[in-house]
Amino acid sequence: MDSITYKNCKIHFNTTCYTAINAHIQQHNFSKIFILVDENTHTHCLPLFLEQLHTDIAIEIIEIESGEIHKTIDTCVGVWNTLSDLDADRKSLMINIGGGVITDLGGFVACTFKRGIAYVNVPTTLLSMVDASVGGKTGVDLGHLKNQIGVISDPDMVLIDPNFLHTLPANQMRSGLAEMLKHGLISSDAYWQKFQELSALTLADLDMLIYESVIIKKNVVDEDPFEDGIRKTLNYGHTLGHAIESYFLSNPNKTTLLHGEAIVIGMILACYISTELTNFPKALTDSIKTLFISYYGKVTINKDEYAPIMELLKYDKKNNHGNINFVLLEAIGKPKIDCKVDNDIIIDAFEYYAS
């Protein structure tokens, strides 16, 4: 697969990843290399990566705890202090090996430490390969509110090696697949149709679908790097999806949802709202709901939980001037941004999901 370039960042695939990172290290005279992992990627992914890394530069491993709950400023402070204690300087390189939590937080740490050091992202989950790998969004959560603190800053390169996917449990694979399904809904019916028989997909199919998903997001980000217009379409399903994810994360009586699990619910709700407001065909909404629930199951959201979830919408990053802005669909591959939605329709959408 050919490498993909956007702005000053290169995205490499498969064995090209290791040729590229070794050449990059050789060319740039880095003083030290710091590798950020969590306990899972430390065990399952780091050994594979280090086998392919050829350098005499000193390497330090920094481990943080896994999970969205640790995607916080407090974790950043711990990593910043560790970098300082280990004599990191502005010529250091940081390599983030993990899912979206690691690449988001690690990127934020790198681009703020000493006003910015070089970093490379090595996404190891399907979600991070097709989503966090492109676009330069870094940052952390503010309490249970997702991605409230951060900057847009591109890594030197992104290395996508699907061999890391063999270490993932099934629910993490499904979580990543949700973003690929989203790419189909917002970009093209041809790409969407490739997911209609999920059980028939092979690993070879997945390799190519990952590549296509990265290109879809890359093309959007190239056109709108700072989310002033078309890049907002990448948030399809995320307005309510993030609110649901935050609610479940903060409520001790609920089982925490993976990002993709929450976004799937958000996409079903957005399809229903699209049928009501932008003439998206009802039959398509029904078929999408059926497909998603057959693969992800249905999550119980009680009527008395609608209001606290909707209250969280005010923290959505697409909002402006006090307005909550939704991304809706007029057709598959034809999204519409900055849509205003009445609370009554949102409640009807929850009822539709539950029915």
From TrEMBL:
<dbReference type="InterPro" id="IPR030963">
    <property type="entry name" value="DHQ_synth_fam"/>
</dbReference>
<dbReference type="InterPro" id="IPR056179">
    <property type="entry name" value="DHQS_C"/>
</dbReference>
<dbReference type="InterPro" id="IPR016037">
    <property type="entry name" value="DHQ_synth_AroB"/>
</dbReference>
<dbReference type="Pfam" id="PF01761">
    <property type="entry name" value="DHQ_synthase"/>
</dbReference>
<keyword id="KW-0862">Zinc</keyword>
<keyword id="KW-0520">NAD</keyword>
<keyword id="KW-0547">Nucleotide-binding</keyword>
<feature type="domain" description="3-dehydroquinate synthase C-terminal">
    <location>
        <begin position="176"/>
        <end position="319"/>
    </location>
</feature>
<feature type="domain" description="3-dehydroquinate synthase N-terminal">
    <location>
        <begin position="62"/>
        <end position="174"/>
    </location>
</feature>
<dbReference type="GO" id="GO:0000166">
    <property type="term" value="F:nucleotide binding"/>
</dbReference>
<dbReference type="InterPro" id="IPR030960">
    <property type="entry name" value="DHQS/DOIS_N"/>
</dbReference>
<protein>
    <recommendedName>
        <fullName>3-dehydroquinate synthase</fullName>
        <ecNumber>4.2.3.4</ecNumber>
    </recommendedName>
</protein>
<keyword id="KW-0479">Metal-binding</keyword>
<dbReference type="InterPro" id="IPR050071">
    <property type="entry name" value="Dehydroquinate_synthase"/>
</dbReference>
<dbReference type="GO" id="GO:0046872">
    <property type="term" value="F:metal ion binding"/>
</dbReference>
<dbReference type="GO" id="GO:0005737">
    <property type="term" value="C:cytoplasm"/>
</dbReference>
<dbReference type="GO" id="GO:0009423">
    <property type="term" value="P:chorismate biosynthetic process"/>
</dbReference>
<dbReference type="GO" id="GO:0003856">
    <property type="term" value="F:3-dehydroquinate synthase activity"/>
</dbReference>
<keyword id="KW-0456">Lyase</keyword>
<dbReference type="GO" id="GO:0009073">
    <property type="term" value="P:aromatic amino acid family biosynthetic process"/>
</dbReference>
<keyword id="KW-0170">Cobalt</keyword>
<comment type="function">
    <text>Catalyzes the conversion of 3-deoxy-D-arabino-heptulosonate 7-phosphate (DAHP) to dehydroquinate (DHQ).</text>
</comment>
<dbReference type="Pfam" id="PF24621">
    <property type="entry name" value="DHQS_C"/>
</dbReference>
